[in-house]
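so i finally got all the pieces together for this one. its two components total, 1069 residues if u count the protein bits. some of the lines might not be protein, just check the labels. i wanna see the whole assembly predicted at once instead of chain by chain like last time, that was a mess tbh
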Amino acid sequence: MSTPATERLLKSNDENFTIDDFKSNMPRWCTGCGNNAILTALQRLCRDEKLPREKTVFVSGIGCSSRFPHYMNTYGFHGLHGRALPIAEGIKMARPDLHVFVNTGDGDCCSIGTAHWIHAIRYNMNMTVLMHDNHLYGLTKKQASPTSPQGLQSNTTPRGTFLEPLNPLSVTLGITNASFVAQAVDWNPESLFEIISRAYRHKGFSFVRILQRCPEYVPTMFDHWMNHPDKTLLLTHENGMQVSPSLAATYKNQETHDPLNLDRAREIASMTEQVPVGILFHDPEATRYDDIRDPDRPISPETIRSALDSEFDKFTVWPEQ
Amino acid sequence: MSLEHVDLVAFHLTGERSGGQLQDVSELDLRPALFSGYGDLSRLRYDYPLVLVAAMEGEELLRPLSGIIDDLLAQIAAPGSDGEFDRKQLLNLEHEIRAALADGEGGTLSEAWRRAAEALRAEADEAAEEQLADLLERAKAALPVDGELIDCDGEAPGKVLRHAWQADQKTRAGALRRRLDQLILKLHGILQADYLKSADAKTADNLKGSVGTSYEATFDFEALSRLLPQGAAEDALPETRRQRVQWALDTLRTQRFVTGGQQSGDEAPYDFVFDGCAGALAAFRERLPGLVDLIKALAIAELEIDNRYKESRHDAYFARFNENTLVAADLEPFPSYLVLLRGLDRDPGWQAEIIQAMSTGLPIKVLAQADDILRQDDDTPGQFSFGAKGLQIANMALGLNRAYVLQAGASNLCRFRDKLQQGLAYPGPALFSVFSGAAGNAAGAAPYLAAASAMESRAFPAFTYDPSAGNDWASRFCIADNPQAESEWPEHDFHYEDAELQRIEERLTFTFVDFVACDRRFADHLAGLPSNDIQNGLLPVGEYLRRTPEDRAENVPYLLMVDRDDRLRKVVVDETLIGAARRCGEVWHALQELGGIHNSHADRLLAAERDRWQEEKERELAELRDQAPAGPAVSPAPATATEAPAATPAAEDSAEAAAEVEAAPPSDDAYIETPRCTTCNECTELNNRLFAYDENEQAYIADPDAGSFKELVEAAEVCQVSIIHPGKPRNPDEPNLDDLLKRAELFN
């Protein structure tokens, strides 16, 4: 929040960015990797939203997708496996003025990080979470993840996986206080950018599952969806995703879906024959933990020192006693 | 024409009671017939007493006692006959509270509750004593709110507005205080960090002070001081920046606009409540330099904290920053100025002051309370300006366009609580014109009834004008809160018994005449008929006002009133009062037009369109008849059925765009569907001169001559989203063209 006079000055003094301003190291992802499309979409978002680099932070766990912070010329935190969300929550609590993004993979989020994922949804703190879902562990050279389709042969499942995959959309929609749930596909840059933009603008925990190609280990995994646009169900709505005429001409299979309709969102999330792309659920009124826990007054160093002193005093053995 | 009717006509035209049969109503203690159900207000449940809810976030600011009791009953009383005792006793309690307040007892709801509960317990039967005590205890525990309890009297509008204003100030000042505290903390942090880097901070004495007394003997602070690196001069804050930060910090700390925090100024915070517009304006002007400095300090602090202060740009801006630089939005975070005016009807000089305050655009919130809207000016004899006093000020303020205006009777303030809050939050001037009904001129009627009947009779109609609601009158102006706003006068069913004890039902119109008829000062304009049986040549006032002069011919208007024993009396009305009612109706009609009801411009336009449509349809019909072969007559189809649904603009746009997309001509040149590119680097790694990324990092053909047709075909083959179209080869001599063209076919 700034006073109107400051807003005027900042507007008149607006900085304009290019995508190059947000580029950092050359990505080490394989050629053809879907992560490149996600990286470009986020760099475009930062440019278009004019996010100050010193006020933007990308947090990740471990995995191919979690290399993301290295490739953004912003602040970043390459965390521990499955622990991107608690780190991001800590950052948001300490520095609510920062724009917080989280990049996590299907292994990172839906396996070792599941506990944090579930509770982060319920906490609904203001951050944008991109779940890069390529259906396997790629960085460690092909092991099955919780979202691997049944029968996928991998280094850990040579006879194929036995169980049906976990559905991250259904799980998220089942958690109390979920506020923004969307699905995107990396091979459709326009809708990817539109969905990420709406996720960023939502005040709360925006969870975007992005189906992401891995040309190295499962090169044909998404061909069924990519080669048949009629198998993609575009979810459009005046309060949801809106698509350009050219995209609408290619993807004719569309449904007008009100993102406030949770029951229909859950039905859509469970679809198997079509891949839904768009915003499944959006409740801008959901309670935010960072909002209700925002202290009424700023906490000064003196206050912190005095609180710590009084705690320490409980256990102090004074030298003179 | 009978003699009796001549007397009636004579009274109507001249106000003279000739013939000795017409009675002076001032002796009859009459009130309008529709008032007959409203004798002792303490026996009725209505919007008063009001609880000025002690501010709790999310609570409504004003709550009627009856609403609180209803909620309690729903919460604690069992449904059906099981809850009968609870319901009866709590309604008795409500009555006790209401009666005590009417007798002049004040205080908070909880105090009034305690007194009423004691009274109830004292009156209770022994058998019911325990049950009653239990009920009262449960009800008290479930009481959701507390706050001052007020009745509808001359003090009520001031108390309500002050209460709502305090709540608004609390929100506003709270937000500003938090902002100031944050900025002070961070500015202090900047200076503190600079200090800690300085040589001063690293002297032995300072180091010793920072360790504390317990371990001071353990350290050699002189050595420590020498060891610690001394900050380089370039690490220190530039002097201009340090001074700027210090000035902003001092200004934020010594401001007087909000209380709280660690004020370091010696002077008391400002007061924002005034009893005159001139005083409020003078105070605003006197404080303006301080306000300008504070706004400037806030902006400098925010820029400095974000490290976005650029001396090359901002120094000049802040050097010129003064009161003329301010815009309305700059004042929004600061308290508004509250002016409480009562007795506007007695001092017309205030009108000019109010209008001047409203025209400044400053956040001055004025309560203009009128207690007597029928008062006539002593210095303008001969003018009969019923109601004009109360109405003028709000109507004048409407003309300014930039002030929030609310007009309402005190009886309805609770229903206007949201609008009161909107007016207080509006970032500009606001006028709340309220008629209290507390002048005591209405024959025996309580202020609540007087204020309500002023609204009901259109003498003091309610409206709001909110300049922030939109750009047109339809968005800004609202009269929907008036009773039966669509009608000229409200109508109500009225039942009574005739001399034979037969139930009679009538539909009565409540007009301006009813409102004036309550006021003894205007008794001369009315005359009581000796008998209610006189019918000929009489018309009810509502009907009389509706008719044209020709239609009412020599009829005389009459009003139904009741005396102190609730006996119905017919009263005739003179032409002067009827003229005033007609003018009141005209004013109301003008408000209706502004509010979009029976708007003459819209009506004319609609009539013209209807005529045009009718003519068109008739012409079409005639054409059809002309074209039809001889045979059965063509019956006109309903207009709607003949018209095909028109395409919506959005659908047209979309269809056009889709046609455009589909009509893209095939080309012999190679091209990429750039918007579909996923930046996967396949093509750019193949040849980064032929393929390049645009400003969105999506591929396009940068130079078709920078690569071979073979590379184009290979790129098309590896592109995972199949958006590269190789076209036709540019070089006819390239080897293996036949094979390449065949491979390219898949992608063209």
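The first strand of chain A starts at residue 56 and ends at 60.
Chain A is about 35% helix and 15% strand.
anyway lmk what u think
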